[in-house]
């Protein structure tokens, strides 16, 4: 449904003039991005501030025109269109924004009606289209109110109804819940999930919050310095991110870091009298297997659990633990092999001196 092929975007300080001086290098915000979002999927793009998320999503409806590469939506190449043809194609793409972008002088009804007025639709038809949409987003009783009379969550619901007014095939969400509190965020994400389900709408969203990805996305891409560096099913991303940045997002989300006092004592290389400190991630059957007690029995290693957590990520259960393995060098090495042979991901964070 959405396909980006080799899309790059460079912002030039002096626009796109042909006589650009050689020193006018510009900022390359996207580098050779390939992305495919099949029909009916909810796809998240997550990244740090400045990574290129907004540029990426704005390239999908050509609010930003890519410097090179092509963009297809619903099998139509948007990058080959301009003028009226591009306007027509954009009716199939709805968009919502972090700060809602409502017109303050228009009522809720008139905000949702605006794109239909611009399409030249008759008043009666507009009414028939807008009222069910306001019902869908739970605002049937706010038809005549103005944006200033609404909460943030209600404003975003108006924006969602407006985005759906032209019956788009695709909805783009630009940090749509970043200005909302966690409870309201949950409600808006549930509405988006509902719309995806009921209308079969394909959704591409950008966010810097793992919670958003965890709650509603099917797949996720990680963006860093303008490049998509990782793409995975959400369950896989949360159990075994492949990049350092992915692991750092996951650790921040899980808030699973060794205690500060321990971090200060961690040494990179093992010593004669040191124990490894490991981060263990396990999913599937391993969650319910008593591996730690077996470790003690079968490898003769004592395990001191420093932190542990079990998370439900969609249909998967993910266990995480930070632990100190106490035994001789041979015993702890054997213990790590044992854990890995049972499909646990083991990351040695460092080594701490034993009290001798
Ligand atoms: N209109 C512009 N002109 C020049 N540079 C821009 C423009 N818009 C974005 N940039 C630059 O492009 C890079 C990517 O910005 P972008 O806004 O796409 O990132 P982002 O991941 O959405 O960041 P944030 O989460 O902070 O909004 C940044 O270095 C930014 O400074």
TrEMBL record:
GO terms for cellular component: plasma membrane. The keyword Membrane applies. Coiled coil: none annotated. Part of the ABC transporter FtsEX involved in cellular division. Important for assembly or stability of the septal ring. It comes from Halomonas cerina. It comes from the Bacteria. GO terms for molecular function: ATP binding; ATP hydrolysis activity. It is a peripheral membrane protein. This is Cell division ATP-binding protein FtsE. Residues 1-23 are annotated as: Disordered.
